[in-house]
From TrEMBL:
Organism per entry: Parnassius mnemosyne (clouded apollo)
Cross-referenced InterPro entries: Nucleoplasmin, Nucleoplasmin_core_dom, Nucleoplasmin_core_dom_sf
Name of a matching Pfam family: Nucleoplasmin
Protein name: Nucleoplasmin core domain-containing protein
Domain of life per record: Eukaryota
GO biological process, one term: chromatin remodeling
Phylogenetic classification of the source organism: Eukaryota, Metazoa, Ecdysozoa, Arthropoda, Hexapoda
Length: 187
């Protein structure tokens, strides 16, 4: 069975750090993945104060500490993050400012992790198809515009006699035989 849970944490001067580590708890024996979607600055944040959220997690061989959001009242009250953490533990720390900063995301358990990845792939394919549809629409529109232009050129050609830039058409002579285009060109 797979499950998806809302994940949220508030960092402030009184609670500067939070660690996500479901594998340390016996209640989550299945695979886990954390998705942080957004960082929001709370309404009680102080004006002109930078609030910096840092994340610490494992990369290939070492741990890495890096800021993921810098928020300030009057400038940036929210940041869309869309960060995935496939491995625990993950520690979020308010390294500057007094907050409050709210981190919002999803905690995926078990098979849902694979289903979510499949869903992301489907979304990407749909976006690619939509882009393809847009370009196909533009091509069709250009063809329609081009067809309209061709009609005006053909109308002009009809007024002058033979169409310009086209091979001459075969015509029947009085005896019902077709003459060659070369003979028509000599006349």
């Amino acid at each position: 069975m797979s499950d998806e849970y809302f994940y949220g944490v508030t960092l402030s001067s009184s609670h500067q750090s939070e660690t996500w580590d479901p594998e340390a708890k016996a209640e989550y024996p299945r695979s886990n993945k954390l998705l942080i979607r957004q960082a929001l600055l709370g309404p009680d944040a102080k004006p002109d104060e930078l609030n910096v959220v840092q994340v610490e997690t494992m990369c290939l061989q070492d741990s890495i500490k890096i800021p993921v959001a810098i928020l300030k009242v009057g400038e940036t009250r929210q940041a869309r993050l869309d960060i995935e953490f496939p491995d625990a533990p993950v520690t979020f720390t308010l390294i500057q400012g007094s907050g409050p900063v709210h981190l919002i995301g999803q905690h995926l358990l078990g098979a849902l992790v694979e289903e979510f990845e499949d869903m992301e792939e489907m979304e990407e394919e749909m976006l690619d198809e939509e882009e393809g549809d847009d370009s196909q629409f533009k091509e069709d529109e250009n063809k329609r515009k081009g067809a309209g232009k061709r009609k005006t050129n053909e109308d002009e050609d009809d007024d002058e006699g033979e169409p310009k830039g086209k091979k001459s058409k075969m015509s029947n002579n009085a005896k019902g035989k077709a003459t060659s285009p070369k003979k028509n060109a000599k006349k």
